[in-house]
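FAD-binding oxidoreductase structure dump, as promised
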Amino acid sequence: MKGDAVRVAIVGGGIAGTLLAWRTVRAPGGAVVDLFTDGTGGRADASRVSGGLVRGFEPTVAATGPAAESLAEIRGSDILREWSGYRETGALYVLPAGADAREPAEVVDAYLPGSAEVVGRDGVIGAFPFRTLPAGSVAVVERHAGHISPHRLRTAALRAAAGAGVTVHEAPVGEVTRDPAVCTADGRTLRYDRVVVAAGAWTPKLLARSRLPVAGLRTKHIQYSLCETPLEGLGPFVDENSGLYGRPHEDGGFLLGLPSDRWGVDPDAMAPDQALARRVAESARRVFGVPVAVGRTVASCDCYHDPAGLELRSLGPGLHTFTGGSGGAAKTVVAASRKAAAALLA
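structure tokens r here:
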């Protein structure tokens, strides 16, 4: 390693921080990389409980590009397929009347030829177990969408990063400073050329504790419920008409959820919203016309940014964040981490 190599600290050992560390240490020119895996002293990272759906299609062209690029890279890499446990499942995305599905679908096909097909309301009802949909609804059926294990991907990337020379620190981080530096909870102050806060839902909390601007980042409650319901023929799906989203669970049953309206939540104090779980069951009964029994409900939270997108954002010279997608990094983190590493060392 060259003596003048850039010294980089990445605070956060979830899927975003770990992949960024792996990308950065392997980037042309080399860098000395420290990864702080217990970035805020919070509970276990969200990678372990993430749903892990990877699809290319999103309702806008801007959001579709990074997602489709990431999925194409996973499918095209033996290493990433193995690390992530990728398996093709297909996916369905239902949009309300008036939505333009064709342009984003064309972006998906540019990265994943033959993957995306736009179908009308009647085609969806005929092929999938929807009892009804509003007139004018349109959907995208995505053949190459699939499922990964974010925790498995994070674990493999962490092992590879350490093997490539990344120094892994398990000490909790107390704060970061504009120098830039990382101050650990055990009293050390470590200075770097670049510091990146990639602590997911804990990023706003760490920035506030460091007396730094939160910079448009907000936490939001998310949850899903494991339901017993006969939804034969339905794989991972999103229905923007009802708000429902879900996928079959590996152990049987179906994971179902609805968007929450709870913003600014504390990631260290998450608990299931039972009223939201009841609304999930009621909505699923109405949309699919079948019995739905709610079992276990898992609550978590994620970090959002407006405008959305997982990307490197500057807080000042040498200080950055890498978080704030549209809820969950799994869909875009492979491509986003590659671009962020290049930008970090430019």
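The chain is about 30% helix and 30% strand.
lmk if u need the other ones
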